[in-house]
Amino acid sequence: MASPASASSSSSSSLMWFRKGLRIHDNPALQHAAARACGPLYPVFVIDPRYMEPDRAAPSPGSSRAGVNRIRFLLESLADLDSGLRRLGSRLLVLKGEPGEVLIRCLEEWNVGRLCFEHDTEPYYQALDKRVKDFASAAGIETFSPVSHTLYDPADIIARNGGKPPLSYQSFLKLAGKPSWAASPLSTTLASVPPVGDVGRCEIFEVPTLIELGYNETEQDEGAPFRGGETAALTRMKEALSNKAWVADFEKPKGDPSAFYKPATTVLSPYLKFGCLSSRYFYQCIQDIYKDVKKHTSPPVSLLGQLLWRDFFYTAAFGTPNFDKMKGNRICKQIPWSDDEQLLAAWREARTGYPWIDAIMVQLHKWGWMHHLARHCVACFLTRGDLFVHWEKGRDVFERLLIDSDWAVNNGNWLWLSCSSFFYQYNRIYSPITFGKKYDPNGNYIRHFLPVLKDMPKEYIYEPWKAPLSIQTKAKCVIGRDYPNPVVSHDMASKECRRKLAEAYAVNQRLNGTVSDEDLKSLRRKLEEDQEKELRHTKQRR
DNA sequence: CCTTAAGTTGAGAAT
DNA sequence: AATTCTCAACTTAAG
User: Fold this and answer.
1) N or C, where is chain A less crowded by C-beta within 10 Å?
2) Residue ranges of the domains in chain A?
3) Which terms under GO biological process does the entry name (predicted)?
């Protein structure tokens, strides 16, 4: 790793570039930078205005790329990182602009000899990092870019599988084995960080507040239990892991998606997304608990199994060109999804008329987080279950609004839920009525996030359109006036979706992975004709 | 290529 | 009320 170039370099300063990995503990890039620095160390975070600053044209409060909840979470994380660094004798230098451009200017201005940053497998960072690394190598700057965001190096797993990512969880597990770093305990503390040097002509900012970024709305929904930052991450993890029996018995599919004041899961995902919590440290802590208990659950359902899912999707995403698209994605079924903007808008804006679906979408807007199974319900409903809208549209909404939205995991799950890849049992459709009911028969979750329905009797809370008008009136919620009628009939729509999926699957199989635009177009035409025929038949029968 | 085994988390009925 | 069974039925990844 040590390069002779750096020893002979006239420059002695180092730059630690933070992007994800917003933490002090188990941060190999920071450790390396701190340990090897013989001059000043500049810890940098670059605010990209396109990601952070308000965009009035955006569909909901936030920037063009991120909802305000995730921006808040990121700012909190940065402020916490700054105070962590200050405790160690340093601070966080915030700069603004296009990250690649800004970083290269810093490297020049500060005469940096060593650049450290966490390796990242997302396409955005792959392109950005190549630019920066090319500059660094031409300028004789040593770079150190370790893999520490995930448990494994996706490239390594793919290489061990003959160049292709494993596409089933079980084969991933077999291939992955025990992570190489897990042989010895992680280094989770740092004694000190060398001080920052002269910043020259670079304009340095403090970590901004939302208001300073130009947001008026700074109120966070009461109850949203998530504050950004490493401190909150570690507290939250310790709290979750303090109950060893809970950890040992954890089975994700048995969690209650309607629990909101006390979620059924750890809610560590946003911290893992930004790297406020090291996935490796989390892994180590879980293993320590497993050693202490007689028996524990196993992947895929166990708590450790959840962490492995993340790596599974990171690996699949890294090894699949166009992972975030249907077209040009070799593992994605080609399906003639509809582009009905009105159905999409109804879903996005929580007015499908199905309270269980709409309540989940409200929670997404207000909290930026929902339980995993709740995400399944709305994703299934939008795509293969009811509305037959393209999974990429739903993906975009999640990507914007979730505080934990993570490129690989989010796209992977949309591929999964839409039966486009990984999972193919399109007959198994989440009912927007009965699924939530079995966890929350009284509808407390709906009453909380859709207060317009708070006085609807529990008999009708999942299907308020079935309530007699007298009851609707008494509940002060007349369907069609105070709350919408269902945008589709679930029974009819889901049958229709099943049929369309079956036909699309048949075409994909017949054409064996080479479905052209023309093929898709003619399939779409055929499906529409069939639907019309079917409608005529139903009318005749009546 | 062909065969085989397996698939995180459905719904509804029956016990 | 909670658990287990049955249903109808697939598909694909892996080997």
Assistant:
1) C
2) 8-147, 150-184+230-319, 341-541
3) circadian regulation of gene expression; entrainment of circadian clock by photoperiod; pyrimidine dimer repair; response to UV
